[in-house]
Amino acid sequence: MARLRDGAVLAVVVIFAVAGCKDLQDKGSSGxxxxxxxxxxALTAAESLTVKGRAPKTGYSRxxxxxxxxxxxxxxxxxxxxxxxxxxxxxxxxxxxCKVSSGVLEPDPYSxxxxxxxxxxxxxxxxxxxxxxxxxxTGAKYWDASKRIAxxxxxxxxxxxxxxxxxxxxxxxxxxWLPPDKSYRCTYVAAQVAVKKKYGLWVTAAEKAAMKxxxxxxxxxxLPAGGNPTKAPSRxxxx
Length: 239
Hints:
Layout: E1 2-3, E2 9-10, E3 31-33, H1 41-48, H2 79-87, E4 89-93, E5 100-105, E6 115-118, E7 124-128, H3 132-137, H4 145-152, E8 158-162, H5 163-169, H6 185-199, H7 205-215, E9 223-225
Antiparallel strand pairs: 1-2, 3-9, 4-5, 5-6, 7-8
Helix pairs in contact: 1-6, 1-7
């Protein structure tokens, strides 16, 4: 309270209403950037992304991004097993601590369901948050192979998810697909923004509008950071 000269008492009440999405999980990152103002750092980053039309898909193939699940971080485990170890609970191995034989995805970020993973059963996929064909059409076709290989194996761009939900997504961007579990959408879109910003990929006008539409509902949404370098070691090659 503050007493005015005429003796009147002025009561000032400030109420903050905070509503929004879950905090970022920052899987595979070394941390997250600050929240920024308004809708948070993720929204600020989305607003900064370059807008262009899609380049032709001509020339795209998975092989342009190198062999699947290359061990670009040189820890003697392939990238798929690295992500399974990171994202699953109750992990068991076939030998040592590298090749994952089973575990539990609890919950699956896309559907919210609990999914049991067993090697050889196609119930869990490792999703590229920014699909490789989408990346190809928004800048990656003009990169050297080293950068494409890095993107394909960067933990910042990878997530263990329900296989059926992932296959429903296909190579969709934010404008065409969002996780069925609405509580994960803020985290999901923030991660896509982080990948596009880190690698200098552009977005379409529809994609940027969709990103902003989601992120404006996410109070103080952080932007994930970290992952691997944007160039793979020279020993890795792509066609």
